[in-house]
Amino acid sequence: MDNESKKEVMLERMKNKKKEVKVVRKIVFIIALFIFLIGGIGGFIAYNYVKNALEPLDPNSEETIAVQIPIGSGLDSISSILEKNGIIKNAKIFKYYAKFNNESNFQAGDYNLTKAMTLDEIIQSLKTGKVYREPLFTLTVPEGLTLDQIGAVIEKRTGHPADDFVKLVTNEEFVDRMMVKYPNLLTEEIKGENVRYALEGYLFPATYPFYVEKPTLEEIVETMITATDKTVSNYAELLEAEGKSIHWLLTFASLLEEEATAKTDRETIASVFYNRLDAEMPLQTDPTVLYALGSHKERVLFEDLEVDNPYNTYQNQGLPPGPIANAGKSSIDAVLDPAKTDYFYFLADKTGQNHFSKTYEEHLQKVDEHLK
After folding, report:
1. How confident is the model at residue 71 (pLDDT cuts 50, 70, 90)?
2. With bands split at pLDDT 50, 70 and 90, how would you rate the model's confidence at 291?
3. Cβ contacts of residue 187 below 8 Å, gap of 6+?
4. Rounded Cα–Cα distance for residues 179 and 158 (Å)
5. Confidence grade of residue 146 (pLDDT, cut at 50, 70, 90)
6. For labelling alongside 355, which of 54, 266, 289, 341 has CA 20 to 30 A away?
7. Residue 210: phi, psi to the nearest 5?
8. Rounded CA gap, 224 and 232, in Å?
9. Least confident of 26-30, 194-198, 295-299
10. pLDDT at residue 319 above 60?
11. Are 233 and 250 in contact (CB under 8 A)?
């Protein structure tokens, strides 16, 4: 082969090599692009998978699920239990999330958790031993309010018209439904002949957390009835032993709540009422007169005391037909554990301090001393 032919062969080989290099580069580029795309898609899928696993299973769920965390459970077993009970989406993600945030010291126990809880809320619950959720808003119902006043609070906080609230709590069909649902709490006594409102005094004063943006009026009212039911159920055995009813308890407690001031000794006031009941004396408590009148007044006049109404304890002996307001736990406790005294009279001075007397003459002296 002459030199010219050799050159041609070499040139041809060089051309072919360049082509091969281009082809290899293209193949490498395509493979790299493919790997990148697959990696990107995989990363996107993985990101969404983890993101979804970190979110509540069902943000709108109100169903509570009983979950038991046995003593000695580690993070692995706790994660598995939560996934098995349908509280979280993925046990591994929960475990790594807890580890990443250095969360530990989880407590064994029985929990009522929901699918709407975030991982942080679940972790907080397991660390404190109490179910913890961040409410969307809270509703505070103070002690000593009537149904009409509670309606005004609900309207201001939720936007539900107070009139709609009153219509609901006085609706016979709704009341009957609640009586079926809470038979130990809502007895036939709430439908007594002279009872003004069946549910008066049965909506417990407390701060209520809500986990939906706009709870219905029925949800709000039933939440408060549930709180009353849970509170008074603790006194069921004591009431049965005393031969007293829940209606009697809430009625008596509402009188203490309405007579209370910041410095009031509820136990001593309760003793005054007990002493009067035992002596068959009228209770003569002004809040019952105001309830009978259906209006608030700064001062009860003598003519008001003569109003002909079953709730007027100046004209009728014994307790009124039903509660005149919602009573808090301290007033309920005072009814069941009153002080032992010989007092039959009391008055609150302008500072809210109470002064108790054994006789009417002594009471009049204290009226002159503290109120004139």
Report:
1. confident
2. very high
3. 179, 245, 246, 247
4. 26
5. very high
6. 289
7. -125, 140
8. 13
9. 26-30
10. yes
11. no
Look up residue 48 and give its two tokens.
Answer: 């969404």
Average pLDDT of the residues in 136-142 = 91
Token duo for residue 369: 């001393």
Residues 329-340: what's their mean pLDDT?
A: 95
Its sign, for the CA torsion 281, 284, 288, 293, is positive
Beta carbons of 357 and 345 less than 8 angstroms apart: yes
Measured CA to CA, the distance from residue 302 to residue 284 in angstroms comes to 12
CB neighbourhood size of 205 (10 A): 21
pLDDT at position 25 over 70: no
Instruction: Evaluate if residue 201 carries a pLDDT over 70.
Output: yes
* Contact status, residue 322 vs residue 255, Cβ threshold 8 Å: no
Token pair recorded at residue 168: 């609901």
Which 3 state secondary structure label does DSSP give 327?
Answer: coil
Both tokens of residue 297? Answer: 């007044």
User: Residue 148 is which amino acid?
Assistant: D
What pLDDT, on a 0 to 100 scale, did the predictor assign at position 24? 46
Which residues are within 8 A (CB) of 214 and not within 5 positions of it... i.e. 6 or more apart? Answer: 158
Specify the 3-state DSSP secondary structure of 139.
strand
What's the pLDDT score for residue 145? 96
Phi, psi of 369 (to 5 degrees): -75, -35
Q: Percent of the chain beyond pLDDT 90?
A: 52
Q: Could you give the C-alpha distances from 187 to 9, 63, 64, 72, 191, in angstroms and in order?
A: 110, 28, 27, 45, 8
Query: Which residue in this structure is represented by tokens 């002596």?
Result: 279
Domain boundaries, the chain: 64-128, 137-232, 236-370
Q: Which residues are bridge partners to 208 per DSSP?
A: 139
| Residue 264, phi then psi, degrees to nearest 5 | -75, 140
pTM of the model as a whole: 0.71
Does 64-128 carry CATH code 3.30.470.20? no
Determine the Cα–Cα distance for residues 363 and 345; give it in Å rounded to an integer: 6
For 107-130, what is the mean pLDDT? 85
Half-sphere exposure of 16 (CA within 13 A, CB side): 6
DSSP E strand boundaries for the chain: 64-69, 109-114, 137-141, 206-210, 345-348, 354-357
